[in-house]
Amino acid sequence: MRVSLSAILLCTLVSVPAHAEPLGDYGRPEHSAFADEFLPWLKEGWLDLIGQGVPAAPFTDDEKLLRDRAYIVILPIEQRERSRLTLAGVDFVELWTLIKNAPLVYDTRSYGNFLIAKAYRSHSARYAQLIDDIRADMGLVGPFFATAQRVLDADGVRQKSFRYVTPALNGRIEVAQQRVAENRVLIAEVYRRFRERIASYRFALETLLVMTPSPAAVEAERVLKLLEERFARVTAPAPLPAGALVRK
Questions:
Q1: Beta-bridge mates of residue 14
Q2: Is pLDDT of 20 > 50?
């Protein structure tokens, strides 16, 4: 019996666990050039299945990159690996449930507790894990905030254009204003999360030093100070005006 491609795709989509939350502004499927080029209906079909409309404002390339780079920072350190449930290069698992209208509660002790609770063959392996994770974050700071600055610069141009465009675009201006607010909130959330991650590393280092002292603590302290210095060179975006829309 021959089975159509559309039937296979539908069966794959509906097999996603029912407890997954609907995709929102920060939960759109991961960008895929393949799907955009050859299966443009696939993302829209998925959004229709879960009751979400197609986004009213397309993303710029930097806005897509911003969201991709933000995800790994917002995720708790001990959960670095994103889900790999993919179809045609599109990740249909919720990637952005971690951002809500209210500030996220982040326990800066969880990473240190995770290192202590996880079984390692040697206590020095815990320090090696800590050092590797700190260095990984050092590599995230520059690229994310460089992308963020390009997005903020483009949003500045966008906002200046509002006074010159035809009145017929008033509806589009409102959508664009929502996107500007959304971008600003996302950048601010990542900035806050970087500060919390650094605090997590500090707590983890102190925990390891108390529980399993090792000369490796010197190297961990050195790389942590490097991360702190690198983060000190970036700044948080200016606060949004009161009542600004951040989600559609």
A1: none
A2: no
Entry field: residues in the chain:
248
What is the end-to-end Cα distance of the chain in Å, rounded?
A: 44
> What's the one-letter identity of residue 232?
A
Residue 108 lies in domain: 5-232
- Cα angle for residues 198, 202, 207 (degrees, 5° grid): 145
Q: Residue 90 is inside which H or E element, if any?
A: strand 90-91
Q: What is the pLDDT of residue 177?
A: 86
Alpha-carbon distances, residue 143 vs 63, 73, 109, 149, 192 (angstroms): 13, 12, 27, 10, 16
Given a contact cutoff of 8 angstroms between Cβ atoms, the answer to whether 16 and 85 are in contact is yes
| Ramachandran bin of 194, using left for φ above 0, alpha for ψ from -120 to 50, beta for the remaining angles | alpha
* Model confidence pLDDT, tens digit, residues 153-191: 999 999 888 888 888 777 788 888 888 888 898 899 899
205-227 pLDDT tens trace: 999 999 999 999 999 999 999 99
Residue 205 lies in a domain: yes
Model pTM? 0.69
Say how many domains are in the chain: 1
As a whole number of angstroms, the distance between CA 86 and CA 101 comes to 27
Provide the pLDDT for residue 81.
55
Residue 208 placed within a domain: yes
